[in-house]
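Class, discuss our next protein.
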Amino acid sequence: MKKRIFFVILVLFLIFLNSVILMVSLIVLKDKFTAAKDRCLAEHYVIASSLIGDIQALEQRGNDVEENIDMLMRAYSRYLQGKGDGLAVSYCGKWIYESSTLMPMGEMVSPPDTGSRQERLVYMENEPVPIICVYGSFPAPWQDYGLMYIGNLSGMISSWRHTKGILFLMGAVVLFVMALFLFQFLNIIFRPLRQISHASAKIAHGNYESRLPVQGKDEIASVAYNFNLMAKQVETQIQKLQENAEQKQQFIDNFSHELKIPLTAIYGYAEYIQKASVSEEERYECTQFIMTECNRLQSMAYQLLNIALLRKGEMEEEDCPVAVLFAQSKKVMQIRAAEKKIKLSYVLSQNLLIRGNAQQLLILINNLLDNAMKASEPEDEICISAYLEKSNIVIEVEDHGIGMEPDSMAHIREAFYRVDKARSRAAGGTGLGLSICESIVQLHHAKMTFTSEQGKGTIVRLFFPKYKKSFTSP
């Protein structure tokens, strides 16, 4: 594109420059011709006036003018010899004298007929050399005589051609300088486009960190800014896609691992029952273990189905009093806490209302309590409370169990991730509880945070947007 623009502008400039030079040359030629014409007219007038006096003096002495014309014109011929000009005298329509080698008398046409008019005729001849002719008849009583001044234009034409050559030479120099300037100018103009092209090529080859320098406040700077913004968005999206791909691959790896363990155990016990001679008691223990692992697989399938349904983002919203959610949770979780000898307390200082799906919110609370129980020892205490903080309703679950390290907290929302894998499997966990919790939190436009310390316990906080509708206590 740059080459095309360069040659187009150069050709247009060449046409314009040559047109200007040609126009100037024609103006110079016209001026030179006008000057030559004025000079010839002036010389003709002076010589004609002087020649009339000489003819008059010659006639007064009784001499024949035609016979003595050479003598009369000798002085004038010497005067014009250095200029390269010539003279010719006519009498009664015939040439009687000619002093110019530019136009021999044998080649001269008949003198122009001016009649009784005393005007002078000016015309040009171009063969064998360019000349300008000024012819005029003498006044009465010498009207039969006429004088032609023949001006040589060769010098004027040569001078004009020399001037024209200089102008075209200067035009060539100007064109060369213009080409250099235009080349540098286009380099400067197209530099941002080259940078954009190089940056685009880098991005196309996977280097998403490529950026353009933003200089000034013109359109190019705006393009560079928008390009950098686009590149940043592309880089962000690619990073997200890579993270999602890694998470999906990690999910597949974890899922494969989680399936492998129970399926291996089921196959092993089934093969043992089929091939070994076992008692009814051993058969019962094997089938019991197979059923336990099948229940785990069934629970895993249901939880994966719940995650899939939650990701669709569909739910029926309703007014959900926190007190009702706590009461329903207590009926279920208090029994589990009693079996593990864990103290479970619910604290609600005021009536609070959350806008959402009651069933999903109950699953969210129970999953968090279930994780807290798995991390706690007998005689430990778990407290779940709800309170108002600025523009949020906060539900907090606090335990005093094993806690988590910072590295583990970065992955606990991932599917099948376990802080303590052996302990979680022994407790019957699938590693999907917090993934379900995260999906429910996102669906309710809420936020979930974790504060934990190894060996001291964990605090999970849920931040729900405050519901503006007034709540009336039943």
In short: The longest strand covers residues 381-389. DSSP finds ten helices and twelve strands in the chain. Residues 421-428 have pLDDT under 50 and may be disordered. The longest helix spans residues 2-60.
